[in-house]
Design brief:
With 1261 residues, this protein is of the alpha/beta class. Helix 13 packs antiparallel against helix 14. The chain is globular.
Length: 1261
């Protein structure tokens, strides 16, 4: 009986395993998957984002692309999880999106997604037009994969090289030009009906590019060598020539291209190569499928026999995918097509597309597919394609959806810079190149931004998948993963269109897509005689206590079309408060203001500043379109009882007193309010618990805000610090709206609205009335335009104004600022101001700080400013300033800060006042010129010099003609330096960064010669070995921080490092250090370092016996370990570190019993257990509950995190540079760095001594 029972249970288990995938396959919402898949492309956009951008966490980026080459290359798509624009995969993406629309546009139109799909194509084709400025010139890459992968930054912050690389007749690239011609030709068919002029423009480019590709033959990666590591053209260019000819024939029906396919099929491999893959590199299967369609459609003409060979090879591809050919594609145990371990799903989606269209071609031709193992019906091809899509959407052994945001179980840690880093609109703080690795890449939590619709790389050959951000082979998405899938999803969602797929199909008109209003001044509308008769809105039923009244308020004519503005008033006629109101708006063909569109379902809710509608009250919203009144109806709502809290400020006590008709959480009583007074600390933060609780209660909801706003006169007399705290809290909770600003106009001196996307001309009108405003930060407020700045004219107290990255501010906006005579600090970096606008600033005589970074300004602008004698801070990064222009700088007697990064400047005049200089990413021979006056003893005395990523022609001359006696900071990271013979003259250096250079042990003696005052030394990513480290002892009496990360040192170096007794921080991660067992080579030698606080041993082959001595480092506060050789023994040995605050023991072989018995040090605040795969959720959860004062990092997302994380005392750890090292200092101390985040962003290399994982190995296979 026992055996029978076991057999029965086994059989039942087998049946369940077999049944579950079948059950999962039912009910996939292909329409939703299609919508999400298209949405992904909006997250990949580069350039200025449009008003109808739906992925709100993205911002403008790459706004200077192409500038250095004299061409506009702003726009296009980032290919994958990085910030490089690669032309070959981008063009293939556009081609496949266009093909999807051409085959299944009617299905997309029926689902309402055709407009979005066409927008996605146009975003790419617009860029391709820019990239083709001349018939025989095509730009194929912007950015450099090597430098890009060295950094982990969101696109909005990127500081990496944005060099543009091109092909031309002397440097050919037939594969790149051919693919781009294909994309242009395919897109021209998409827009032939909707935008004929644009279609013709695309076709002109396609013709030129094909001629260029065919006449000047060669592989593009031989001309653009930087692409070889990432998108090498393995298949050559022959397939792209045929591919382009096929698309041009489809677009034009010209015999020339048909003959090209027939006459070159054998020579270029179209009739000879039988492929088993189709993608951005190998196009043969795609060409063969298209030509087979021509043949079945009766268009082969005299080339029928040759086209028959194309079709034979196309069908071999189909048979191999079906497993019925002579050479079949490998499949995983779960049935997924498998080609390679890196990003395998790109081949799954592209093969599924070809199978789908060929199924429909065969259906239209009433034929079957004939394979070596038998015939295959068209329905079987479609069924197999569907099975592949279903696998991707979750019907697989792991029940994992590989489309982000679809289903209940999808990747949470996508290898994607923008997705993994907090949105710049949520936290505009600059994310540095290497700091992004420390803070965000290594973070084990889910991505802060959902990369909706992205198809990641997918599982391995055995259906295994590891959802880790550093697992780029499986978790990195790509545009060319999604592009072919659009057509398949549209087909599965909409079914067969009923049309003959072999005949030309016109793309239907797309329904208009509502766009957000653009903040610009428009001319007064021209009245028109007739206004459409308002049609009645749906009348609510008698039981619905909500009325909706609509009317047309104005109309005008633009471009021959009549537009109407409609007003809709929603009124609460019940006796109760209405919450959670959802309105359904249909037949809307334009923008709508005053409501918030819900992410799910497409309905509309209250605007962000309103949370409820009191009894008898109304809200109004407006919309504009060229059609009759839209249909507005009530979808859902909630009735609630009203409460009327009243907020009163007692002027006598200067305390925010709160009284409410209902109980307020916290039970504040009058005695408490009488005894508590307002206390302000040095940073302006409110220390009084009562005040904090009052502000918390006052800003808990829109209702509360509206209630106390009525106490306007009282609130206007609030102390400035309290008013600023209240304003900040309202802003952080999205409860601040323009008219509310009026309350603060008498008591606010500083306003910081950076990154607030809602700030527009209406906000500016209220801000202009602030009587005592001295500082206003509007950086990254992209709706601010020049006319909005008129409101600031004549302000009498304003001293600081930041308009950085307000891209709509131009020269006319500068004119409005000229009346602000008090202004001392002005930041207009990355705006649209030109040389003409900058010349106007010469009248602002009090200017002492001026930031003009990223502007298209010339030497003329700099010459015009020479009358600003108070100027001490000048930022000119990325401008067109040359050596001739900087000669003017001698006219600024007080100039001490100068940023010339990314300019054409190669040498500076003698400027004695300069103390802080940045010439990163420049090409220099000598920093300063030789003074022509030999009697002049006034030479520059630099304190901080940053030359990161700089090309130095002559290292000896570079440091001539300035006095290094005061130089305390020198950053030469990533400057390809080999010779350090110049160092001995810099005896005052305190901080030195040589990371990423080609220096070895022979250079250490030069560093030792200036070691007397050195406090921080970064030698990470150099060629230094233990032999070089042996020179360090005795030469660095003040050295506190050293980084030898990613060098070639081993255990021998430990003894030498231990002799530098002043060390407080050591980073020897990613080295060959094992901890050793000998007396001198073990970590026990570090016991001599009585001041050692922080130690990083991550990514070293250290074992338990190596960690043992660390238990004696009693002063250690931060310890980072990452090794799969460590066990419970190491964890328990570290319990005795009484001062330890942060402990990381990642990827270790820890057990449940080990964690259960672990007694953490009494001061421990952070414990990182990520990657410890043997731990169970229950035991980790139990540990979290027992030690609520410790922030525990782990891999179990559903285990509740410690509530202490919400405590303001601990908030500084939430965005620390590493989970384990929140306070590790930088090689270049932040206090000594320049004050503006934009300037910090110029630093290409790492400023952190923490070694962070790099994805430099992410070569595309």
């Amino acid at each position: 009986m026992e055996n029978f029972t076991r057999m029965g249970a086994g059989a039942l288990l087998f049946m369940l395993i077999a049944i579950v995938p079948m059950a999962l396959g039912r009910g996939h919402d292909y329409g939703q998957a299609l919508s999400k898949s298209i949405l992904f492309f909006e997250a990949q956009r580069s350039g200025y984002l449009p008003g109808n951008q739906r992925v709100k966490w993205r911002g403008n980026s790459g706004l200077l692309d192409g500038k250095a080459s004299g061409v506009d290359l702003v726009g296009g798509y980032y290919d994958a999880g990085d910030n490089v624009k690669f032309g070959l995969p981008m063009a293939f993406t556009v081609t496949m999106m266009s093909w999807s629309i051409l085959e299944y546009g009617s299905q997309m139109s029926a689902s309402g997604e055709l407009g979005h799909a066409m927008d996605a194509v146009k975003w790419g084709s617009d860029y391709l037009i820019k990239a083709h400025p001349q018939p025989h010139v095509l730009y194929g890459e912007v950015g450099d994969g090597n430098t890009d992968h060295y950094c982990w930054q969101r696109p909005e912050d990127m500081t990496t090289s944005r060099s543009a690389y091109r092909i031309d007749q002397n440097n050919p690239g037939s594969d790149l030009a051919g693919e781009t011609a294909s994309a242009m030709a395919a897109a021209s068919i998409v827009f032939r009906r909707a935008n004929p002029a644009y279609s013709r423009e695309l076709l002109t480019h396609a013709h030129q590019l094909f001629d260029f590709a065919d006449k000047y033959r060669g592989k593009y990666d031989s001309s653009i060598s930087v692409a070889q590591k990432y998108y090498r053209s393995v298949s050559g260019y022959a397939d792209e020539l045929l591919w382009a000819a096929a698309w041009l024939y489809k677009a034009t029906n010209q015999e020339y291209y048909l003959n090209y396919l027939g006459e070159n099929g054998d020579a270029l491999g179209g009739t000879g190569w039988a492929m088993t893959e189709f993608g951005w590199d190998v196009k043969y299967a795609g060409v063969q499928t298209l030509v087979a369609k021509f043949l079945m459609g009766g268009k082969a003409g005299e080339h029928s026999s040759v086209f028959g060979k194309y079709q034979d090879k196309a069908e071999m591809f189909m048979c191999s995918c079906m497993g019925k050919g002579n050479h079949n594609v490998q499949r995983t145990p779960g049935g997924l097509i498998y080609q390679q371990r890196w990003n395998n799903l790109q081949f799954v989606t592209s093969a599924s597309f070809l199978l789908t269209v060929y199924s429909d071609y065969l259906t239209s031709a009433r034929k079957d597919l004939h394979c070596a193992s038998g015939s295959v019906a068209p329905s079987e091809l479609l069924a197999f394609a569907k099975s592949q899509v279903d696998y991707v959407l979750g019907d697989n052994p792991r029940a994992t959806s590989y489309m982000v945001g679809y289903g209940n179980n999808f990747p949470q840690q996508v290898h994607h810079r923008g997705s993994s880093i907090v949105s710049i609109k949520v936290n505009p703080s600059f994310v540095s190149c290497r700091g992004g690795y420390a803070t965000w890449f290594s973070r084990k939590a889910s991505d802060p931004n959902l990369l909706t619709g992205a198809i990641v790389g997918g599982p391995d050959a055995y259906d295994n998948f590891a959802d880790h951000r550093d697992n780029y082979e499986q978790t990195e998405p790509a545009t060319y993963n999604n592009a072919p899938l659009l057509g398949v999803l549209a087909r599965l969602h909409g079914g067969h269109s009923g049309a003959n797929q072999l005949l030309p199909v016109e793309v239907p008109y797309a329904k208009p897509i509502a766009a957000q209003p653009k903040p610009k001044v428009t001319p007064s509308p021209t009245p028109v005689a007739a206004t459409p008769k308002p049609k009645a809105s749906p009348t609510p039923s008698a039981s619905t206590p909500i009325s909706i009244a609509q009317k047309a308020t104005t109309s005008w004519v633009a471009n021959g079309k009549t537009y109407y503005r409609y007003s809709a008033v929603v009124t609460n006629k019940s006796g109760k408060m209405i919450k959670n109101l959802n309105l359904w708006v249909s037949n809307l063909y334009g923008p709508l203001w005053g409501l918030t569109k819900n992410v799910q379902g497409g309905s509309y809710g209250f605007p962000t500043w309103v949370s409820s509608l009191p009894a008898g009250k109304s809200i109004e919203f407006v919309y504009i379109h060229s059609a009759p009144i839209a249909d507005v109806s009530v979808s859902s709502y909630t009735l609630a009882r009203s409460s009327s809290p009243i907020w009163v400020c007692s002027n006598r006590r200067k305390v925010l007193a709160i009284r409410s008709l209902s109980k307020i959480k916290g039970n504040l009583n009058s005695v408490e309010m009488a005894d508590q007074s307002l206390v302000i600390d040095r940073g302006g933060e409110l220390e009084s618990p009562l005040v904090r609780r009052c502000i918390e209660a006052a800003t808990r909801s829109a209702d509360a805000v509206e209630t106390w706003r009525r106490q306007r006169r009282t609130l206007e007399r609030l102390p400035s610090q309290l008013a600023e705290a209240l304003l900040h809290r309202l802003l952080s909770r999205r409860l601040l709206y323009p008219s509310l600003l009026e309350v603060f106009k008498y008591n606010i001196e500083k306003v910081d609205l950076r990154g607030e996307s809602s700030v527009d001309a209406e906000w500016m009108a209220y801000l202009g009335a602030f009587h005592f405003l001295s500082s206003l930060n509007l950086s990254d407020c992209h709706r601010i335009n020049s006319s909005a700045l008129w409101s600031l004219s004549g302000m009498s107290y304003l001293k600081e104004l930041d308009l950085s990255r307000c891209s709509k501010v131009n020269d006319s906006g500068i004119k409005h600022l000229l009346s602000i005579r008090t202004i001392q600090t002005l930041c207009i970096s990355e705006t649209s101001v030109t040389t003409n606008g900058v010349t106007l600033l010469s009248s602002l005589k009090k200017l002492s700080k001026l930031e003009l970074g990223g502007l298209f300004i010339t030497d003329t602008a700099l010459v015009s400013l020479q009358g600003l004698t108070n100027l001490h801070h000048l930022d000119l990064w990325g401008s067109d300033i040359t050596n001739e222009g900087v000669d003017t700088l001698v006219k600024f007697p007080n100039l001490n800060f100068l940023n010339l990064a990314w300019t054409k400047v190669t040498i500076l005049p003698n400027i004695p006042s300069i103390t802080h200089l940045n010439m990163s990413n420049c090409t220099i021979n000598s920093i300063f010129k030789e003074d022509s006056n030999p009697n002049n003893n006034k030479t520059p005395f630099l304190k901080n010099l940053i030359l990161s990523g700089t090309s130095i022609k002559n290292i000896t001359n570079a440091f001539s003609y300035f006095n290094p006696i005061n130089l305390s900071l020198l950053d030469l990271s990533n400057s390809s330096i080999r010779d350090l013979s110049f160092l001995p003259q810099m005896q005052t250096l305190e901080q030195l960064d040589l990371s990423g250079n080609l220096i070895g042990d022979d250079s250490i003696e030069f560093i030792a010669s200036i070691g007397a005052n050195l406090e921080t030394l970064n030698l990470s990513n150099t060629r230094v070995t233990s032999a070089g480290v042996s020179i360090l002892p005795g030469n660095f009496p003040k050295l506190e921080k050293i980084s030898l990360s990613s060098t070639r040192i081993d255990d021998v170096a430990i003894a030498y490092i231990s002799m530098i007794l002043s060390l407080t921080e050591i980073d020897i991660s990613s080295t060959y250090v094992t901890g050793g067992t000998g007396v001198e080579s073990s970590l026990a030698a570090f016991e001599n370092l009585t001041n050692l606080k922080k130690l990083n041993l991550e990514e070293t082959p250290i074992k338990d016996e190596g960690v043992g001595p660390v238990s004696n480092f009693k002063e250690l506060t931060h310890l980072s370990l990452k090794s799969n050789f460590l066990t419970d023994v190491s964890l328990h040995n570290l319990s005795g570190l009484s001062n330890l605050k942060s402990l990381g023991i990642r990827d270790a072989v820890l057990t449940d019993s080990g964690i259960d018995g672990f007694a953490p040090p009494r001061l421990l605040e952070v414990l990182d257990l990520t990657g410890c795969w043997l731990l169970s959720k229950e035991v980790v959860g139990s540990f979290v509950e027992r030690y609520r004062g410790i922030e525990v990092r782990h891999d179990f997302e559903d285990v509740k995190r410690n509530s202490i994380l919400q405590n303001s005392v601990r908030k500084r750890f939430q965005f620390s540079s590493s989970p384990l090292k929140p306070e590790i200092t930088a090689v270049i101390d932040e206090r000594l760095k320049y004050s503006r985040a934009e300037l910090l962003s110029m630093q290409f290399a790492s400023t952190s001594i923490i070694n962070n994982p790099s994805d430099s190995s992410m070569a595309r296979e």
